[in-house]
Amino acid sequence: MFAYIIRRLFQGALVLAIVGFIAFCMFRFIGDPYENILGQDATVQDRLALEERLGLNDPIPVQYFKFLGNAVQGEFGVSYRNGIPVAEMIAQRLPATIELAVVSAIFAVVLGVLFGVYTAINRDGFLANFIMTSSLIGVSLPTFLIGILLIWVFAVELKMLPSFGRGETVDVFGWKTGLLTASGLKSLILPSITLGLYQMTLVMRLVRSEMLEVLRTDYIRFARARGLARRAINFGHALKNTLLPVVTIIGIQLGQIIAFAIITETVFQWPGVGLLFINAVNFVDVPIMATYLLLVGTLFVLINLVVDLLYVIIDPRLRLDGTEAR
Amino acid sequence: MASSRLARWWQSDVMWSWRRSPVAIVSTLLFFALVAAAVFAPLVAPYTPFDPASLNLMDGFTAPMQSGLGSGNMYWLGTDDQGRDIFSAILYGMRLSLFIGVMAVAFAAFLGISLGLIAGYFGGWIDAIIMRIADIQLTFPSILVAMLIFGVARGLTPPELRDQMAIYVLILSIGLSDWVQFARTVRSSAMVEARKEYVQAARLIGRSPFVILRKHLLPNVMSPVLVIATISLALAIILEATLSFLGVGAPPTKPSLGTLISIGQDFLFAGEWWIILFPSITLLVLALSVNLLGDWLRDVLNPKLR
Amino acid sequence: MTEHTLLEVKDLKVQIPTRRGVLTPVNEVSFTIGRGEIVGVVGESGAGKSITGSAIIGLLDRPARISSGSVTLQGEVISGLNEEQLRRVRGKRIGTVFQDPLTSLDPLMSIGDQLSETAMAHLAISREAAREKALQALIDVGIPAAESRLDAYPHEFSGGMRQRVVIALALIGEPDLIIADEPTTALDVSVQAQVLMLLKRLCRERNTGVMLITHDMGVIAETTDRVVVLYAGRVAEIGNTEQVLTSAKHPYTRGLVGATPNPANMDGDNARLNQIPGSMPGLLALPTGCPFHPRCSEVMPVCKTEQPALTPLGDTTIACHLATEASA
Predict the structure, then answer these.
(1) What is the pTM of this model?
(2) How far is CA C66 from CA A221, B219, C22, C51, in A?
(3) CATH number of the domain enclosing B202
(4) ipTM tops the 0.90 cut
(5) Which residues of chain B approach chain A closer than 8 Å at the C-beta?
(6) What is the number of structural domains in chain B?
(7) Where do the domains of chain A lie, and which CATH numbers do they carry?
(8) Which residue has the higher pLDDT, C200 or A176?
(9) Residue at B43 is within a domain
(10) CA distance between the termini of chain C
């Protein structure tokens, strides 16, 4: 088990190093740093001074390691567009994105698992069939259309919920949260449904098909032959075995939520890092793009590590040694 | 000859199950109707929406089935703020969306099939490198990959060419974000096929790997590839619409369905619902028909994929 | 039906509606099992042995269903009970052992928990008492160092040990009948006999009846008191194991016995196993008359048109026109 975790850590570090290299290449080779920082009418002396200051004359590997070193210390350079340090811009907007993503993820996982289990157990029921059919439309509906539809119904027509922004926020130890005010919570509803709906349908369909698979296994049949109560079989045995493959996919889905937050934040003008990133892509603001890539890469590696650890906790077969994966 | 071949095709297993599936029939007909409308957009569209000379600003915000105040022209689906005919704009937008989607999938399929065949046939370190890259890319959602590639490619093109190149950059970024599925599937089939005796025999008589790959391995992986390509097309259309909606796709001068929806969103609050509604419905119907078609193909060609 | 009868299966018929017609994998099967009696059910694969077992405990997979006939356990008809009533029968009154011990146990739950969970489902006892009982059950089936193995997971046991755990699970509710469906087929030959003897000893000690489903005449010979021979969903012959083995009346049973290696009928170096020519017909293409007639070495004209009824012949009961002729 120890070897298993070490191997996973090593793989994560490798992915991070590669992501870091791509970010570095973007940073170093895209756009013209001289022009971006100094403006168009810089003198040769200015250029040489900048070259010296940024270390652009060093060999490429040295530059790469300097870049990584800076990144570890939270130094990501300065936005080309408005000259503010990237780290500062991101730190300011991170709470908005994290709150949105976490609420959506809880929404997607809780409802997805519930619906998935329900539709698997009542395979031929009317409600289960209805849920399955509507989920097919849900999968074909692009996220931004869901957002627009919700805005149209609940903000424009019914005027029940706000259509953009975070509402009022409260400062808690430097973390600006919208979870403590009524307007902040109201503002969160539509964006988190928009962001979570697609993931919810995916989680639901996955839980359903895995659960149906498990319900067909010999040990479920044997559990019935042992005369266990239906609830004990469905939740004590079937669901637990279903969760094993589902946990991985849910991990990947959480990563998807971070990426899809870009869309939701644009639709609802949610002041998070996704909106920052999309504007950066539009204006080719490379430091922000590179930093976002690093941030998201780190996050995905962390999610994958947590998923691997959860695997070890759920599956006793992995607890002994890493070689006995199924 | 031709008629007997046609008859044989009509009698084949795939066509047999097509004839028995209402969902497949409806989605096929819908899809081809939309494709035809897009291909023949210049003939079908009543107006040329992107020719500034033909626009009449007085016709702006005409509601569906009304005549414009300026020209007196009839607009079935209404007009936008500039007096552009929504119906014509949708046809041209769909043309662009389909073009980008098909080209991106073709590019992804070419790249994925080639790399998958190479990885599966040669194995060893070539396989290890290709599949490791695929694994890492798969960690990142395709929309993020596409956006990053779009941003990078944009950074590498001179600013004055950016709008002109946007469509090709889109094709490149969507294609690059989607090759992994093809590569994975083709690789596993190729690994199985490569061990079979007829391939071994072809190797022994000294045929070049390229010929073996193309003549012997490729035909055997075509049906899963077709399924993946169909499902990928739906994803690519949605991805393109999303990118364009976000403003990192097709330029406003040449709008795709996503661009049209993003333009329409500004007018939703003012009550001009038709500007956003009709492009959205078109996108939904397009994506849904391809999705249903893909679902059906997967069931028919490869029941085991489910 | 006598006082000693534990289980009575009467004219049991199981049908499966399919697109190509209704299949009848179990057709008017009748037999009884007495208290503490070990009855073997034998036949080729597809003869309807396992489906009969599933039908008795009400675990038929949809769309298969009991279309007629009855199953009576200790005087109470249990076919046609609802799911909750059947649940109280399963595990409590009828224990079950499946073929493959590798897949019968939940891989994510310790065997101690699986045992005590089953005990608590049927006996009104506390968690501690259930754990005590689980430990005793493991000791009874001969798991070495049972106390330290309670918290072990199924993958930490060998195949033979796992089947012992499965037997412990089947017995922990103190049932009166065990249905064992090919309990040793998936095991190594070396441990097959041990597991079989264990099952036999435990059931004898507790006076538990056993329905032992197998395709192996060797297992029948070593373990059972009586034997039911099934062919294409119908009973071919029922009788005392010893009589059936030594002087089977039905040509099919004779074929089965002859196809089993047995030192008694192997005289000389060139002794060969007899084979029954052909194979069992599919359920969709059953021949008219006696289903065995196309393969029968003693086929008569009547066999091709009329289904023989179960008729007593000496100490056994057989479904064969030969018997009807002999008694006529």
Answers:
(1) 0.77
(2) 18, 49, 13, 10
(3) 1.10.3720.10
(4) no
(5) 136, 139-141, 143-144, 147-148, 150-152, 154-156, 234, 238, 241-242, 245-248, 261, 265, 268-269, 273, 276, 280, 283-284, 287-288, 291
(6) 1
(7) 86-318 (1.10.3720.10)
(8) C200
(9) no
(10) 27
